[in-house]
Amino acid sequence: MPPRRIEHEGDSDSDLDIFEDFDSGAKSKGKGKGKAIDRGKKDKGKGKAKEQPYAWEASYTRSWDTVQEDEAGSLQGAVEDLIARGRRRRLLAPAAAIRRTIIRHLVLLLDLSSAMMDRDMRPTRFDLMLQYAREFITEWFDQNPLGQIGIVGMRAGIGERLGGMSGNPQEVLKTISERHKLEPTGEPSLQNAIEMARASMSHLPTHSSREIIVIFGSLTTCDPGNIHEALAECVKDRIRISVVALAAEMKICRELCDKTGGQFGVALNEGHFKDLLFELIPPPAQRALPSGPNARSAGTAPADLMLMGFPTRLPDTSPPSLCVCHSQLKSEGFLCPRCGAKVCDVPTDCDICGLMIVSSPHLARSYHHLFPVKTYQAVTTLDNMPNPSKMCHACARPFKYAPQSMAGASGEGMSHLGRYRCPDCQNDFCGECDVFVHDVVHCCPGCGR
Amino acid sequence: MDRSSHLSVVVDLSPTHWYLSSTRSQQNSRPLSLKSFLSQLLVFLNSHIACKDENTLAVFGVLPGRSVMLFSSLSEISGNPLDAADADTYRPFKVLDGTVMRTIAEHVENLGPSDLEKPVELVGALTKSLCYINRITATSSAQSAEQTASLDPRILILSVSPDQSSSYIPIMNSIFSAQKLRVTIDVCKVYGSESVFLQQAAHLTGGSYLHLERADALLQYLTMSFLPPPGIRQLLSVPTQDKVDFRAACFCHKRIVDIGFVCSVCLSIFCQPVPVCSTCRTKFPIKTLQRLNAARPPITIPAVAASPSVTSLPSSHTIRAGHINGSQPVAPNGLR
C-alpha cells in the first residue's frame, strides 16, 4: 500500500474522532439540526458506544449537521463548546478506588494473522493497531513509570517474541517500529502466545501485577492443545488477561477475561477501539473487599513492604570513577545510599548490596492515582454569593458574567458561567483550568495539595 | 534564537525568613533585606521585558497561607494613578514596578498575626503559574502552532524558606506537569539551606538551580544565569548543579529519607517498617516486617546508634538528615 494513502486516511479518522459523539446524535435523529448537540450529550459515557454505528455500516459522516451557528453566524462558540464538553466528559469518570497496582508488568499480544488485513477499520486493522499500540505504550509508561512491557506477536500459528520485558519506552517502541517485519500472515494461536507471555512473566516477584492485553482481530484460534489448560495456569499465576477484539465476541476470549479479572471489549469503530485500549492504561484498582467474586484471582495480590533506596545523582562534571554495573569509567551516575556504590541508571538493584534503587520522581509519578484532586462543582448561579470573584483563581482569566447562550443548556456538570468551584477551598476556576488541574497538574491551586 | 519568551517569576515573600535574611548573624555574613531584594528583582524584571518587545511576564507572590498573582503583562491595569505620563521612564517599566510594589504592599498589609504561623504556599503559586502558562500557550496554539513553540515558557522560583515535606507530592505533581508543558523551572535559592525538592524541580525540567553564595550580588546572578532563555543558555556556561538529591519525604512523619520502606501496592514511602500501609490499608506479612526490622538502616532509629553499622554511614548524611528531622514538626498522622 502506498504511504500517501495511509496518511490521507489517517486524517479523515482524526476528524471522525472529534465529532464522533455528535454523529451519534445526528444519526439517530436523521437530519435533526440543532437538537443534535442535546442528543449527543445524553449518550455520553458508556452509553455512547451503543449508539454508534458499526464501522462497516457507516456510509459517511455528516459532521456539518452537528454544529450550530450562533446569532452572529459564527461557528466559534459551537466549536469551543464541543471541545469543552469532550474534555469535561473525561473528568466525570469516577475517581474512587484508592488501592491500585502500581508496579505493573504487561505483555502486549498483537494479532498478526491475515485477519488483520481487513479494511473495516481504516486504513487496515493492522495499521490502526500499530498506530494505537504506539500511542498506548507512550501513555502507559507515562502513567506507570515503574512498569515494564513485553510484546508478543501471534502469526502463522505460533507466538513470536517481538520484544522482551523492558522498562524503557523507546526500546519497546522500537520493537514495533518496523512495519515490514510485522507483516500479518496465517492463523493466530491464542494458546501459544499466552503460554509464551506467561513464561516470560514467571520469574516476577509476587507483589507486582502481571497482565496480558490481547488485541485480537481474528475469529479463530489455532491451538496445539487445550486452551482451557492455559487459562487455568494463568488463573493460578494471577495473570490478568484483557482482550480488545476487533471482529466479534468469541466465547473463549470472554472467558479468558472473566476468569482472570480482566476486561473484554469489542471495538465498534476506530474511536471505540482507541477508547477500549486506553481504558486499560490507568493502574487497575484492586478491590479492597476480600470477599469479592474475583478475590482469589485479582483482588488480593499479596502485598509486601519493600526496602528502597533513593540515590544521589552525580553531575557530569564530577571526577570520573568506575561504575559497578559495567566497570566503565564515567563521571555521571547514581550513588547507592546504603553502600555508596555507583550505578549508571535507575531504577535498578544495587550490584553490591542488593538494595533496590529508585529515584523518588519515579515513585512520585504514580502518586496522583492515590490522591486525586476533588472534582470541582459547576457553579450555576451567582445569586446567593455576596461578591463573586472576578477572575479564575488559577490563571486570572476574567469570568464572563452574562451566561453563555450555549446550545446544550446546563446539567451534565457544565456551568453556564464557566465557573467551577473547589469544594475544599471554595475558589472558582475557569473550565480550562478545571480540566488542566484534574488531567495534568493533579493539585488544586487553591488548596495547595 | 531571537524569539519572544514568557517568564513567570515566583517570589517567596515569607516575612519570617526575610527577617532572618536581613539580620546579620554568623551564618549570614552578607545580609540581604527584602527592600534591596525587591529593587534588584525589579531591575531584572525590567530587563526581561526590555529584551524583546513581545516578551511576557507574570509575577506570583508566595505568602504564608496564600499565594497571589502580583503582575501579569496580559491584564493591563487601566486608571492606575501611577500611570501619569513621565518623560523620564519607559512606561512599561513604570507600570510593572508600580503594580508589583503596590500589590505586594497590599497583600503584606492584609496578613494577620495568625497568618504568620502558616507555612508559605509555594505549591499554590507554582500551580497558578502553570495554569497561567497553560492558558497562554493554549490560546496561542489556537492561533498558530508556530507561536506556541516560540513562547518558550519558563518559571523562575526565588526561594528563601526551607522545604516543607508536607508539600512533597503536590510539588512533584507540579514538576511533572511542567515537564508535560515543556516548561523550564529555574530555581534561585536566595537564602537558607539547599532545597531538595526545588533541586529536583530544576533537574527534571532542565532548568538551573543556583544557591547564592553572596546574596548581595543577587542582580548579577539573575542577569547572568536567568535572563537568557533556555535556548540560548546552552551556548553560555550557566552554573550547573553539582549534586542532585533524589531523596523523598516519607508519608508517615514527612521526614526526608535516604532509604525507605515502600508499599508494593501504592508505593507509599515509610521511614520505618509498618504493619499496615496507611494509604491503602494493605496488611504486610509479619515475616517481611521481621526481616526488614533486622535489616533496618540505622539512620531512622537513633536508639540503636551504638550498633557498629552506623560508623559505615557517611557522616554528612547523618547530620543532614538529623538537621532536617529536627526542623520539621513530627506529625503522628501526617497524611492529609
TrEMBL record, chain A:
<feature type="zinc finger region" description="C4-type">
    <location>
        <begin position="336"/>
        <end position="353"/>
    </location>
</feature>
<dbReference type="GO" id="GO:0000439">
    <property type="term" value="C:transcription factor TFIIH core complex"/>
</dbReference>
<dbReference type="InterPro" id="IPR013083">
    <property type="entry name" value="Znf_RING/FYVE/PHD"/>
</dbReference>
<feature type="domain" description="VWFA">
    <location>
        <begin position="105"/>
        <end position="256"/>
    </location>
</feature>
<comment type="function">
    <text>Component of the general transcription and DNA repair factor IIH (TFIIH) core complex, which is involved in general and transcription-coupled nucleotide excision repair (NER) of damaged DNA and, when complexed to TFIIK, in RNA transcription by RNA polymerase II.</text>
</comment>
<dbReference type="GO" id="GO:0008270">
    <property type="term" value="F:zinc ion binding"/>
</dbReference>
<feature type="compositionally biased region" description="Basic and acidic residues">
    <location>
        <begin position="1"/>
        <end position="11"/>
    </location>
</feature>
<dbReference type="GO" id="GO:0006289">
    <property type="term" value="P:nucleotide-excision repair"/>
</dbReference>
<keyword id="KW-0234">DNA repair</keyword>
<dbReference type="Pfam" id="PF07975">
    <property type="entry name" value="C1_4"/>
</dbReference>
<keyword id="KW-0862">Zinc</keyword>
<keyword id="KW-0804">Transcription</keyword>
<dbReference type="GO" id="GO:0005675">
    <property type="term" value="C:transcription factor TFIIH holo complex"/>
</dbReference>
<dbReference type="InterPro" id="IPR007198">
    <property type="entry name" value="Ssl1-like"/>
</dbReference>
<dbReference type="InterPro" id="IPR012170">
    <property type="entry name" value="TFIIH_SSL1/p44"/>
</dbReference>
<dbReference type="InterPro" id="IPR013087">
    <property type="entry name" value="Znf_C2H2_type"/>
</dbReference>
<keyword id="KW-0227">DNA damage</keyword>
<feature type="compositionally biased region" description="Acidic residues">
    <location>
        <begin position="12"/>
        <end position="23"/>
    </location>
</feature>
<feature type="compositionally biased region" description="Basic and acidic residues">
    <location>
        <begin position="35"/>
        <end position="51"/>
    </location>
</feature>
<keyword id="KW-0479">Metal-binding</keyword>
<dbReference type="GO" id="GO:0006351">
    <property type="term" value="P:DNA-templated transcription"/>
</dbReference>
<dbReference type="InterPro" id="IPR002035">
    <property type="entry name" value="VWF_A"/>
</dbReference>
UniProtKB/TrEMBL annotation, chain B:
<dbReference type="InterPro" id="IPR004600">
    <property type="entry name" value="TFIIH_Tfb4/GTF2H3"/>
</dbReference>
<protein>
    <recommendedName>
        <fullName>General transcription and DNA repair factor IIH subunit TFB4</fullName>
    </recommendedName>
</protein>
<keyword id="KW-0227">DNA damage</keyword>
<keyword id="KW-0804">Transcription</keyword>
<keyword id="KW-0539">Nucleus</keyword>
<comment type="function">
    <text>Component of the general transcription and DNA repair factor IIH (TFIIH) core complex, which is involved in general and transcription-coupled nucleotide excision repair (NER) of damaged DNA and, when complexed to TFIIK, in RNA transcription by RNA polymerase II. In NER, TFIIH acts by opening DNA around the lesion to allow the excision of the damaged oligonucleotide and its replacement by a new DNA fragment. In transcription, TFIIH has an essential role in transcription initiation.</text>
</comment>
<keyword id="KW-0805">Transcription regulation</keyword>
<dbReference type="InterPro" id="IPR036465">
    <property type="entry name" value="vWFA_dom_sf"/>
</dbReference>
<dbReference type="Pfam" id="PF03850">
    <property type="entry name" value="Tfb4"/>
</dbReference>
<comment type="subunit">
    <text>Component of the 7-subunit TFIIH core complex composed of XPB/SSL2, XPD/RAD3, SSL1, TFB1, TFB2, TFB4 and TFB5, which is active in NER. The core complex associates with the 3-subunit CTD-kinase module TFIIK composed of CCL1, KIN28 and TFB3 to form the 10-subunit holoenzyme (holo-TFIIH) active in transcription.</text>
</comment>
<keyword id="KW-0234">DNA repair</keyword>
<dbReference type="GO" id="GO:0006289">
    <property type="term" value="P:nucleotide-excision repair"/>
</dbReference>
<keyword id="KW-0863">Zinc-finger</keyword>
<dbReference type="GO" id="GO:0005675">
    <property type="term" value="C:transcription factor TFIIH holo complex"/>
</dbReference>
<keyword id="KW-0862">Zinc</keyword>
<comment type="similarity">
    <text>Belongs to the TFB4 family.</text>
</comment>
<keyword id="KW-0479">Metal-binding</keyword>
<dbReference type="GO" id="GO:0006355">
    <property type="term" value="P:regulation of DNA-templated transcription"/>
</dbReference>
<dbReference type="GO" id="GO:0008270">
    <property type="term" value="F:zinc ion binding"/>
</dbReference>
<dbReference type="GO" id="GO:0000439">
    <property type="term" value="C:transcription factor TFIIH core complex"/>
</dbReference>
